[in-house]
Amino acid sequence: MPGGEIGRQATLLRTLSHPGRLGIVAVLGRGEACVCHLAAALGRSQPYVSQQLAILRAAGFITSRREGTFTYYALRDYAVLGIVDLADRLAGNPPLSRGQPAAVSGCECPACRLAPVEGHRAQ
Ligand SMILES: [Zn+2]
User: Fold this and answer.
1) In a domain? residue 104
2) Ligand 1 centroid vs 4 CA: distance in angstroms?
3) What is the 70 CA–ligand 1 centroid distance (Å)?
4) Domain enclosing residue 57, as ranges
5) Cα 5 to middle of ligand 1, angstroms
6) Looking at the 3D structure of the chain, how many domains does it have?
7) How far apart are the CA of 114 and the centre of ligand 1, in A?
8) Angle, vertex CA 56, rays to CA 33 and CA 40, nearest 5
9) Residue 8 lies in a domain
10) Beta pairing partners, 67
């Protein structure tokens, strides 16, 4: 029976081993975000993002909190970014940006109304 420590490792890595979920983890690595923000940032529908968030939450990767009409999702433990960074390195990808959350065009969440628009930041 597959169990024990290796079984838990495999379950954890299997949950992350998905393009949509890796994308969500990468965006949340820059700070908490609502579903509409994640959907706009990833170019996916909100139902798709909600489905992947549910899987990540069930696996214990993320937490959520409500504020007004928005629900914000955040990484429960930012240590997960170490796995993402390592996977990027092994894949030869450039390192992820770790700046402040940037506004995503098409997103109307409070964070986007306050943040500078990505790519249009004053140098
Ligand atoms: Zn937003």
Assistant:
1) yes
2) 40
3) 11
4) 4-114
5) 38
6) 1
7) 9
8) 35
9) yes
10) 70
CA of 31 to the centre of ligand 1 (A): 11
Residues ≥6 apart with Cβ < 8 Å to 91: none
pTM of the model: 0.85
How many Å lie between the centroid of ligand 1 and the Cα of residue 118? 11
Whole-number Å distance, alpha carbon 107 to ligand 1 midpoint, is 5
The alpha carbon of 81 and the centre of ligand 1 are apart by a number of angstroms equal to 21
CATH number at residue 49: 1.10.10.10
Q: How many residues appear in the chain?
A: 123
Task: Tell whether 98 is covered by a domain.
Answer: yes
18 in any annotated domain: yes
Q: What is the pLDDT of residues 60-103, one digit of tens each?
A: 999 999 999 999 999 999 999 999 999 999 999 987 767 666 78
Does residue 17 register a pLDDT over 90?
yes
Higher-confidence residue of 116 and 67: namely: 67
Radius of gyration of the chain, Cα coordinates, nearest whole angstrom: 15
**Lowest mean pLDDT across 23-27, 105-109, 111-115:** 111-115
Distance 46 CA to ligand 1 centre (A): 12
